[in-house]
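Chain A, query sequence.
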Amino acid sequence: MPDSTTPLRKDAHLDLCAADEVEPSANSTLLEYVHLVHCAMPELSLDEVDLQTPFWGKTLKAPLLVTGMTGGSERARAVNRDLALVAERRGLAFGVGSQRAMSEHPELTSTFAVRDIAPSVLLLGNIGLRQGIVLGADGVRRLMDAIGADGMALHLNAGQELTQPEGDRDFRGGYSLVQTLSASLGERFLVKETGCGLSPDVARRLVDCGVRTLDVSGLGGTSWVRVEQLRIKGGPAREVGELFSSWGIPTAAAVATVRRSVGPGVRLIASGGLRNGLEVAKALALGADVAGMALPLFRAQQAGGVPAAELAVDTVVGALKQAMLLTGSRNVAELRTQPKVVAGPLRDWMGTL
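Chain A, predicted structure.
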């Protein structure tokens, strides 16, 4: 049987994300400083707006990824299966949470298994840096194959790990692992942050290691540092967690500066605090290929199951299509070419990185 602390920790994460303040009010994606320019004469029908997006050999009906959140407990299994079903029905990509639990306890594999109810969804597996080093390329591939995933995400979460009492403290050997996994998995591999953002320098080095898909996962949404801090009852560790709950590169800044740094040949996912279709449109306009979100869909699922989560997705997609029509954009490629105004702190970030 798995260590009883594993499911308990996973369920504690879900409890905190469902109910408590895991989005510090001081944090911002800086997407509010991106202003798309209104086109009063779009010369488009709403039905002509095309959201289809190619990704890893499949075509998404909308440029959206349900980003990896959970796995490792029965409650997590229900969340994964409900949201994977929504992604299947709406033609989105879907990612599971860290597969560390199933790598250590194979009997937890079922909490990540969604392929039976989402046979055609673009499915991403997920493992952390330290666990990837321990498993090696063959072990990581086995995790991917065990759930029938189309590809594998390597997540970077040093901030979270340092705050988590039982977390990792050694982050050496990362680039060597990335190079190995890039060679082994090729196009079926991506590297993602977890709410603290990717800088242009790190992004360029990852690309030099062979990575062709990046998820910037910036500051502004769920702070996993805050999640771990809320699990701590008191003492210095809780105070340090509070201090670093606003640490990171805002999502808008990460998207804009990483795209400028790596050029058009790298797929870019924008996640971290995106909460509606207008914010998705802004992220795409800054250079993202796909937008990722988790918390709004998770909270909808917790409140009303699959129907509520489907409604949440439909609301996001509807707002995205409206933003595209109102900018005169027939598709995502045209949206990127439309004028936009960048102001305030985001302009400062873009002028510095």
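Residues 156 and 290 are 19 Å apart (CA to CA). The mean pLDDT is 93.
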